Structures
1.
Amino acid sequence: MAEIKPFRALRFTDKAGDIPSLTCPPYDIISEEERRALLLENPCNVIRLELPREGENPYAEAGQTLKNWLDGGILRRDTDPGLYLYEEEFTAYGQTKKVKGLICLVKLEEFSKGIILPHEETLSKAKEDRFRLMNATGCNFSQIYSLYNDESHITRGRIDALSSGEPRYEFRDGGGVTHRMWLVNDPVAIRAIGEDFESRRLYIADGHHRYETALNYRNSLREQGKATGGEDYVMMMLVDMENDGLVVFPTHRMVRGLREFSGEKLMKACESYFEVTAHSPVGEISAKLDALYRQGKKAFACYCGGEEWTLLVLKDEAVMARLLPEKSEAYRGLDVSVLHSLILERLLGIDRENMANQKNLVYTRSMEEAIASVQTGESQCAFLLNPTRVQEIRDVAAAGEKMPQKSTYFYPKLITGLVINQID
């Protein structure tokens, strides 16, 4: 099934500076202010390649910067191919957690083959941006985050044994996440791990845009007669799906710009499908939702301003089977599917194209930001959700379906800049 292999990563040399000052979060969660601060700390920060903004053609500028750094010894390619074991230690929901996996190259496969499975819809604008960057630089600067099933945890045992020594890198970032990385060059160990994946599927957790972009890049090179083989692979971080450190945060929805919107009328209409209960204050939302999450209820909160908020609990899950008979039980059972199908589409008239273009729907991981956007009048209402379970992600992907965009937020994000895949 999945084909993985080691690679000779590009890594920053001591000439570039300390590794903490050279790495950055993924490009899509960095503000312009944060980008500038990273470059102010170290002008060689990988953000100059990952999120170029300088010059009339930022993508071409990134390509030239990459060349300059290679020529100047800022970046150097590892001598031998290897696997890179990566661990993040962090705090979530008041607990200290660790998640560890391996960074390698994975052979690109069309989704239709059922070897690498997506779980989420993507936005076209992001794919266009990443495609232009790949064309200009010929690199994967950040890893796609994927999960695999390993009920006996054989691979996890190998990874733990190979990372028992001193890490090559270890540092704590500004967000309180500790990053560690080990390099494995032993051919026997690499071969054993590769054989582990020969019967496995991979489930993309984060990085759908980058994976689809890699497919487009590969196909483009083939059409131009420029394919050399390296474009058949993409850099991934692979993690055991049953890893205790996996944390998924919800992504909340903010509704704005609808004509003649009435929160009171919307809540009245919701009574057809939901138990509708008013509560206050807004500080209780998280606790109420968490209690229902533990009970397996399909529920979310709606905030339209003021001191009160409304709890919506689905009355009868059979309604989803009637509305979406073509979808799997796994898809119909998602909180986000219930919200999108029954309220956003059916009651508010926000269709899927509208959602994809973020015309009347905007997303945020921060419940506080969602609530504040309503209080300031920027949004007309906000829907606060519970997180999607990892098992639900697997089941939807295995059914060959995709969740609505922005359905999951794996935390913490993988840091960018420890290793770079230069596509041969």
2.
Amino acid sequence: MSMRRCGVVALALMLGACGGGVVPRPSNPSSHEPPVRKPVAAKPIAPITVAPPTGALNAAAAGVVGGPPISSLPITDAQAVRALAAFRLSCPSLMRRTDASGLTRGADWQPACSAAATVRGNDARAFFEQWFESVQVGDGRAFATGYYEPEIAGSRDRRSGYDVPIYGRPTDLIEADLGQFSDDLKGKKIRGRLDRNALVPYYDRTQIEEGALSGRAPIIAWAADPVEIFFLQIQGSGRLKLPDGSVMRIGYDTQNGRGYTGIGALMKERGLLKPGQTSMQGIVAWLRENPAQGRDIMRENKSFVFFREQNGPPLGALGLAVTGQVSAAADPKFIPLGAPVFLSADRTDATGLWVAQDTGGAIRGANRIDTFWGAGSEARAIAGGMSARGSAFLLLPIGTLDRLTAEKASAVR
């Protein structure tokens, strides 16, 4: 994705996964972090009982069954309006892209997309009821986390209090698309550098922090806190609050090719986190209270992200702007990018209509949703503790399920 290359998930809850929507220190050190939002409990809609095959590689292989009528889903008018705007923005990609989930074809989306272009906001809910049907992918059991666009203290130039470099793409970093060498390796890339005539792994986090990039990469800005920039790398995009009060937006450019290690898992395994300290805020607090040990733990994550300055809003995997409270990251092998998804969760803030406009390294498998909450303290408080379970119902153009059923029946004859 453009906004987050290493799927931002609730670190305190995923712990071993790639990511963690960790709350960075506010730009004003005297201010206080908002507490993790206490969820309001809700009773999710029970998924339809099915026995999906194990090891399915996409939604078509996992199997789909018809879900509840869309008119019966508790979609609020505000959610429908936001989802309509996001869906309308995603339509060109839906009609153009090859659907890795195996569920839809570009032409399937044409009628709904044509209708979306003329629908008024107050008819948004009726639009989804008229043009879509809900389906359940696999067993329908969903797990949702949250991410947001962080804002941390930074400076365009090095000055007192701002001495953590934020690097742009190194000049000696090589990216190789392995699919050009073998059809079996389509979609796979490696990154490295040349050492004499050999391609070797690129410098890891420790080597970079110890100066390996000197003369090899531009420094586009300077951060005030190594913990902040560490977690902004996990997010993959964010805002730098500059000393004069202005904002500089930076986004993911590329990565060093090293594997990601979730430091939350290491901290838990080593007994470093006390009960009640396993929230994102608790993990950040521990790292700041134990700077030397914290630095060593962060260095065990060898992955390192390089940034570029952005002039517009954060972008998702479709190259489109993502919007708080409606955009979500999903696995495109199970949810077509650009498609609406209704999430019925055990907490009210996660329940609603989302549009899959992003992806993430840890967002893998059927019914795995990472909800985007925008920027600011409110978004930080919600995303920081988001962990919801329930059911997911994918919204597909009407007639898709009948076509898939007919194709499946024809294939077994």
3.
Amino acid sequence: MNTKGLDNKYIAHSYSRFDVCIVSGKGSTLFDESGKKYIDFGSGIGVTAFGACDDEWTKAVTEQLSKIQHTSNLYYTEPCAELAELLCEKTNMCNVFFGNSGAEANEGAIKFARKYSFDKYGEGRSTIITLIDSFHGRTITTLSATGQECFHTTFAPFTPGFKYCPANDIEYLNKMITDDVCAIMFECIQGEGGVNNLSNEFVKEIEKIANEKDILMIVDEVQTGNGRTGKYFAYQNFDITPDIVTTAKGLGGGLPIGAVLFGEKLKNTVTPGSHGSTFGGNPIASAGAISIVKRIDDDFLLAVSEKSKYIKNEIAKWKNVENISGMGLMLGILTNKDAGEIAKECLEKGLLVLTAHKNKVRLLPALNISFTELNEGLDILKEVIEK
């Protein structure tokens, strides 16, 4: 039985997979079982920030493998501490909690936003406002935080304590600020919800409300973080200072890792025994992440922005394109064709792209994708969209 047959027989059917088995790759060029080549415009949904089998990442991970692969969090490890320092230096945040995924990071953010409020104000101040079309994870609590009704069906009862505001609706947001609210949680660009940009005015209103009411700002940077939008974190495009930032995906370069970054208000909120994660801050995942974070400097971020501008300028010339949203190398293309059909046709021609809802093609290429790979992929995408 081949890989697809084994998968269909033995793996729970939680994914509608494309009809391809990826076996190897280098950079943004991948290969399937038959040796067919694909240009990768998805980077594992924003995970392989430096592409497949990046030399520096591979070296960092394999060197750590020969030292120690795991200890419990009862002990100190060098990679974990160094990574935390790097993240705080990039963001001016105060300290970090490490977990294994974006969903776990968002769980931690929710948990400690409520703890901060409880410690300071007592019971009855635990509601978190999130945005319609947001996506914060697939655990019961992060599904509850997710502002999409399609996720609020099968798995009830859901965790209470969330209410949902339309993105960019300042008047509606202000009406939702009641005495029970402890935090506002948002993505600067809603990825799974359709690559929807928040307006600068709306984000600034969140900041104003947060400062006036001691309501925490939680920014979900699971997909938008680690250089994806042309800044280290997307919120830096809006000149705000969040109280909590979550991240994952591109941080690990391909290994599971998530992080919750705490600002000044929350630097002492996490106390021994209040939270934990068996694999959080794992030395191997942390070593890989260090090799990623160290390379995302101002020159690198400028190159991300330049590639973004190049892609937008090219796509804007194409027939059947109605709109381009997003920032940096997180882009959504609205066309008058079905996004799923576009993705399927691209796959057949040797290009991997993503979708967001029914009507948007989503691009999340590796941040260091070469212009040769970029142009090869754009040629295929243009052919399919203009068809």
